[in-house]
Fold each of these.
Amino acid sequence: MKGNEAIAHAAIRCGCDGYFGYPITPQSEILETLAAQKPWETTGMVVLQAESEVASINMLYGGGGAGKRVMTSSSSPGVALMQEGIAYMAGAEIPGLIVNVQRGGPGLGTIQPSQGDYFQATRGGGNGDYQIIVLAPASVQEMADFVDLSFELAFKYRIPAMILSDGVIGQVMEKVKLPPFKPRRSEEEILRDCPWATTGRRNGRPINVITSLELQPEAMEKHNLHLQEKYKTICANEVRVEEMQTEDADFLIVAFGSAARIAQKAILDLRQEGIRVGLLRPITLWPFPYDRIRELAGQVKGILTFEINAGQMVQDVRLAVEGRTPVTQYGKMGGIVPTPDEVIATLKSDFHI
Amino acid sequence: MENIISPENIVYQKPKLLNDEHMHYCPGCSHGVVHKLIAEVIEEMGVTDKAIGISPVGCAVFAYKYIDIDWQEAAHGRAPAIASAIKRLWPEHLVFTYQGDGDLACIGTAETIHALNRGENIAIIFINNAIYGMTGGQMAPTTLMGMKTSTCPYGRQADLHGYPLKITEIAATLEGTCYVTRQSVHSVAAIRKAKRAIRQAFENSINRRGSSLVEIVSTCSSGWKLSPVEANEWMQEHMFDYYHVGDLKSI
């Protein structure tokens, strides 16, 4: 099935309580699949087509703030509209899942694939000092698997989580093993697991307030410091990478999502020629695998960062490498998906092979 | 004195849900009265454990400090979207928003219209004082023609600013609304009526009868640059002329 469809089926199967979204190409199959599946008749999952992406993300704020596993999906311009709400969720520490099936930009851009929202996702596209967890699937299987993983991380740390996919992974059809059915959490489980949520003030407990507002500078600073501590914990515990043939690599390609799939083919072809190239694929774009890239920088003669944009992740790669080895970048914009041959030619030319 | 305030002599007490936090509202402001009514209604209905309020951006941004129920603080204008999700996910709960005219009728128009049009089982309490109070008296979508504010210092003019928006009338035309009313809290009689309206709206939410909108035509003595008494009189004289008080829809 398509990556977008896998997301929808995985959501129903992993105990998602609600989906709120607005149609936009190339990810409308998520809402369409959910609408066709009618999970409100089976698991009780709410599915609502909202009036805008602005409303969708605020529905996530409301639902997540009330302790429910809620998600939305959109594509680049729609996710740009959501940034205010994502910042509010980060500030108020509300868990939730945002899926971005990226298309080319800036502005209305194109409906073709892109990875141009790397900065938007990993730098906090809204206002203030905050981060969200960003997972980058490279297959339809990972589209399915990352739904439950995102919810688990989001609730563990009370933080929004994003699946940063793209038009390739959203539209491509691959075999997928859907996750086993997991029931939605019961009311008792929500009350137990989310004592902070606005579930209705029972038995005279103190009131729960979901807010990102605090006018006393000292209190606001304290809250910010708490957020930064949380982000440090996540950086220490939740970095995920996949490596391919890095053990003996003389050169390294760093690529995520669909670009990593293209890089895999390029590496197989390069190895046929006797050029020892390895792949490091960040699965979490935030937290970013700085440490592992730094280690590999001491081993290889050069690193090519390959991403379908003008060069965004390359900044993180350079921060990790700190000049230990040359770092170059290759990418395409405008909705053009580069071929393995282009990657091979770039690597050879950049490092004079 | 101690004898006078002994328990058997008490004929009126503020609702327990209205806590002792010092309110930040200006003297003569309608917010305090409406807060008290909301607290009374929730208490009388016995639904403290089911009530979730959504506070706005504007003067009532800190509503959650005064009424001891669970609250979510919304981004400017987005309260109806937040309430929509909560009510769908917790269908047995009483879910209401509390919004001003800038929040509800300007930046949040889309969320307001669409939540009401979907017939979300929520109650919206809409404070219309025809001005932006919190930011210091700027023009609101509901500012009356000719009325002076800091951003229309020569008075609201149609060619420059357009016309005051009767969003409650629009709400009454939507299929999703079951109860749309305009009230005020300028007199004891009006306060009693407003309380009945809030109770009706809250019962509609609990019983999932559709969307309810309760507009309260309100004073803003600071924004209007009038004394509390003058503001009450000005409201009756000018606001009621354009914003007619009464039920617009009740089914």
Amino acid sequence: MALLSIENLHLTIPSFEGEAQILNGVDLTLERGEICGLVGETGCGKSLTGLSISKLVASPPARYRQGSIRFDGQDILGLSESAMRALRGRRIGMIFQDPTTNLNPLFRIGDQMIDVALHSTGANRWSTSARREARARSIAMLERVGIQDAHNRLDDYPHQFSGGMRQRVLIAMALIGRPDLLIADEPTTALDVSVQAQILQLLFDIVREDNIAVLLITHNLGVVARLCTHVAVMYAGRIIERGTMADVFNRPRHPYTKALLNAVPTQKTRKGTLQGLGGSVPDPYLPHAGCRFAPRCAWAEARCSEAVPPETDLGHGHGVACIKAGDLA
Amino acid sequence: MIRFIIRRLVLLVPVFVGLTLLVFTISHVLPGDPVKLAAGPQATAEEIASLSREFGMDRPLPQQYWHYATGLLQGDWGQSVLTRRPVAADLKIYLPATLELVFAAIFLAILIGIPAGLISAMTANRWPDYLTRILSLASIAMPRFFLALVLQLIFAMSLAWLPLNGRFPIIDLPPPTITGMLTIDSLLAGDWLAFTTSCEHLLMPALAMSLSPLATITRMMRASTLDVLQQDYVLAERALGLSQSLIILKYVLRNAFSSTLTVIGLYIGWLLSGSVLVETVFDWPGIGLYATKAIVTQDFMPVMGVTLSIGFIFVLVNLVIDLLYGVINPKVRYQ
Amino acid sequence: MSPQQSAHPSRWQNWQRSLYRFRQSGLSIAGLCIVLVLLVIAVAGTWIVPFPDHITGGINTAARFKPPSSLNWFGTNELGQDVFTLVMAGARVSLIAGFGVVMIAALLGGLIGALAGYAGGWIDDVLMRLTDLMLTLPSLILAMAIAAALGAGLDNMVFAISMSWWPGFARLVRGEVIAKKEDLFVQAARALGASNSRILFRHVLPNVMSPIIIKMSLDMGFAILAVAALGFIGIGVKPPTPEWGSLLSLARGYLPDYWWTAIFPGLAIFFAVLGFNLLGDGLRDLFDPKARR
């Protein structure tokens, strides 16, 4: 049984514009030890997929119309808030994009981290020995993510840390409960390029050591290529191609995946051959039939707009949601 | 931190000088002759002139100001033309009564307003929120003096639960004066009966005065809580499993309160000035009533004294608020 | 992640959005209604009240302290005057006085703020220090002192209150002028050789009008409250002027037995202030959506 399996997940969010269809049948599985890159354009539903796994999307107003999320056999969407809390910080850790806004500026790093550490073991907040133990674990974890002089820095405020250091703190907080699954939502996008590589390497080392499954949400294909074992490509609220790194990057079958990969320059890219993708992400408010990518697709035919293409399995977990997948080898 | 306080205190000096200059100028620009009023309608020209000399009002204005300002430094706030009592002595009696009222009102407003604002934000756009919002809109529009009258009508005149007016029954023995605030003095003296008696007298006036700051604090608290709840760090705190009550009561509360703090400082000045209305209704012997009597008789030394002391207190309170802000917000503290 | 807005909202969606806004601003509509009713009463008051002669001081000693009835809706007072008539007549007094206060304060404060913001340098320093000092003084006591020194009368009272009211406008206008001064179109006007006063009056001031008007409408309720407060203390207007605050003050002596003489003038103040506050909030939301809370 997979650690995480999302099946046919549909999510809508109402507004006075109408009902926005954010997720339109997301299918995704993740095993222990896998690092899965979830890639796609801004607004395609990557972040909301990540938040859904921790059940952090306010519902209502959002509504899960169909589908399920199973984490270690438990039906996430059916769990109560208190049952969910038992998973958050203990079995599921999360890291978000901007380290400058994800730490509460009015509290010491230690305040926030010790609270998370206490929660992760379910210890009594008011017990001195539990607090001392939580503090010790926090220091150890901070040291592990490369923060020097951790037992003093625990008493510093967020604004006394650099962006990269803050992200290290956030990684430490997410991992202090030794989770089975880590959801990292664009963890390096807001950082300097030189710091990005360090943070990614750190993340990679720790999850490998602890055998943690990672869902790495990003729009940076270079990051995926360096770190991930698996890739899922998302377009307009649906995963249109997924599989191992090698399958998806070396043998992409979906026209969108091909276009995405063509839009990334590599060392072999010759001058003038880099291709952008025309058009823009479809309007989530408009009703649709058929493949959502069809309007931008160079290979589209009349039948593409008739029915939503089912996922075709091309062997060892390489799935493609395109009716022409077989022709586009 | 110490250096910050000292720097702020030094900066107060020109503010205080400016205040005395402004108040002195205003009171001398205004028409009206206090000496003539004090001397009475039958007074002769010589009597008026001698009274004028006695109070130093025949001298040129800059000299008068110098005399007044240097007097202030030595604790001499001038003398009432009418009662011939020194203003400083009067202020020492009346100011604590008003401060007691203002602090009680702000205390009530904070005590009720902060949870009310939090609850309103937590239940945003559901019925507890609507109820709180409508009540606070109504509270801001409610004139304090009218509310004071209605409270009197209900709780003193009809139900006779609370005393109609005053600070303390004349026939009872008040606690020995230490701070001049009866509730605190009676506690210091360990006189429980005097404490409950003074609280009974304090309750209605403080309630009448607290309504408007209560409503404003509630609205501010609601708005800033809603704002904080949208912040990334609240989502991050939830994502790592912290309980809703811990997030709200520990993390969100401090963030939201820091923006509400400024309003509280402004309100203390506003209440000091507006206490005259409530003092009038409840015959509360504070600086408001004292100022009213002096204003009606155009006895301007007491009026200047009251105006200046309120100005000074207002400036000091805002300094304290700034310091508190630094305690709450580490970014300010470490600058 | 917020759902992206539709690129082409249909007419149906626009209509829906207006309806959504309208529902949101139900309270401002209520405020507008209260203010409109007040305006009608203030204009037509003297003709539609049941006992017009009571406004000018006419008394009826045979009908003292009558409780509310079908003849005297709000009862009668110690002089046998109809309280309903007096309260209705008070609307005109309060509205004129309140409007006078915000008008004078806006003009004076606007002038000082515009001068400070536009001139900059030491003029700005001096004027703003003065403004800040004025803000630390107790406004109500200052207004009482000025009103008492000037003598009784509605005009003196209005002037006295506005003398403590202008600093708020001065700060607002200074901030707006400084922001607008640097805007491109002013730079352009200067490049074309426009004079200082022309730039100020033709280009800068028209552009700072909307925040001033919003503040005026927000302040109107509190100005009415300040007028009533001075009337209640007994400084400013004197009977027989049917001012709500002084009506309430007189009625204090006849509590609790003749409660109607106090309750109705008090409620009138409450509703007038509430109406203007709601309307002001609504206007601010309409013109300045960013300030919305």
